[in-house]
């Protein structure tokens, strides 16, 4: 009887060791592959969220260390000057969108490629309650994971679609098509991207839109980078 119990215990120990090894392997392979896919914006966000570790050689190395609990990480991120600076920059941009009559407190807004969610925070602070932030990595609590090229939303459910992530989009035409699909007819799409140096470049971005018509074009400095902001009315163009 005792022999049986001992044997059983031995087996359980063996099995748990195997499970633990498999889990570790998974964690390692997951963190290295996701790190590879990240663009600089995500690296920055991740680097900020794991900034506690002293002198990490790369954000990948830092990310594989034990992270802070989510609420603490979030509090820490929010308290940085960089966070405030970015949120304020987006706040100014959205004030001009309000000025055009395209955004109100009751608007349902989608932010695509939102990184750590500075634009989501800016919108919420300004009184817009219904804001959804998505990106290829989950950065709680403001941004959840979805593919910008294949948005998990029904057609026409948003009043406004915003993104500062066109420059990093793998398939810009698909990226814009998904915004045009998920924003309602008559709603607006606002994209901020690296400042165009020629009319042809602006036309190229305009050409990505298949159903929308231009409302407004402006230049702005968005957190230190010279940007062009294009504002389109969705569904206003003849197909
Ligand atoms: C929107 O909400 C903010 C914050 O609650 C409020 O200060 C502002 O007056 C509201 N704006 C409008 C137009 O209702
Ligand atoms: C934005 O800046 C570019 C390059 O500096 C310039 O060619 C263009 O006319 C500007 N566009 C607007 C709308 O001010």
Automatic annotation (TrEMBL):
User: Pfam families recorded for this chain?
Assistant: Methyltransf_11
Q: Which InterPro entries match?
A: Methyltransf_11 (IPR013216), SAM-dependent_MTases_sf (IPR029063)
MF (Gene Ontology): S-adenosylmethionine-dependent methyltransferase activity
Report domain Methyltransferase type positions: 110-190
Gene3D superfamilies noted in UniProt: Vaccinia Virus protein VP39 (3.40.50.150)
Q: Source organism's superkingdom?
A: Eukaryota
- Which spans are transmembrane here? 12-31
Alphabetized UniProt keyword annotations: Membrane, Transmembrane, Transmembrane helix
The positions making up the signal sequence are none
Report whether Membrane shows up as a keyword of the record: yes
The protein's name in its UniProt record: Methyltransferase type 11 domain-containing protein
This protein's species is: Spirodela intermedia (Intermediate duckweed)
């Amino acid at each position: 009887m005792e022999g049986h119990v001992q044997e059983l215990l031995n087996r359980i120990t063996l099995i748990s060791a195997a499970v633990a090894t498999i889990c570790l392997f998974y964690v390692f392979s997951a963190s290295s592959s996701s790190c590879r896919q990240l663009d600089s914006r995500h690296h920055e966000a991740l680097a900020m969220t794991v900034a506690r570790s002293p002198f990490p050689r790369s954000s990948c190395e830092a990310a594989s260390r034990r992270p802070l609990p989510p609420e603490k990480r979030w509090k820490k991120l929010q308290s940085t000057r960089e966070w405030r600076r970015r949120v304020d920059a987006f706040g100014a941009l959205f004030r001009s969108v309000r000025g055009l009559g395209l955004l109100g407190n009751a608007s349902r807004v989608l932010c695509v490629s939102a990184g750590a969610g500075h634009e989501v925070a800016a919108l919420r602070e300004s009184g817009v309650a219904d804001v959804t932030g998505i990106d290829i990595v989950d950065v709680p609590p403001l941004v959840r994971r979805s593919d910008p090229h294949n948005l998990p939303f029904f057609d026409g459910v948003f009043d406004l679609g915003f993104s500062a992530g066109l420059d990093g989009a793998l398939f810009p035409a698909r990226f814009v098509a998904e915004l045009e699909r998920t924003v309602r007819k008559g709603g607006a799409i606002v994209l901020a991207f690296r400042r165009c140096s020629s009319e042809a470049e602006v036309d190229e971005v305009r050409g990505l839109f298949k159903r929308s018509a231009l409302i407004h074009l402006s230049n702005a400095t968005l957190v230190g980078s010279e940007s062009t902001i294009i504002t389109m009315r969705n569904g206003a163009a003849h197909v």
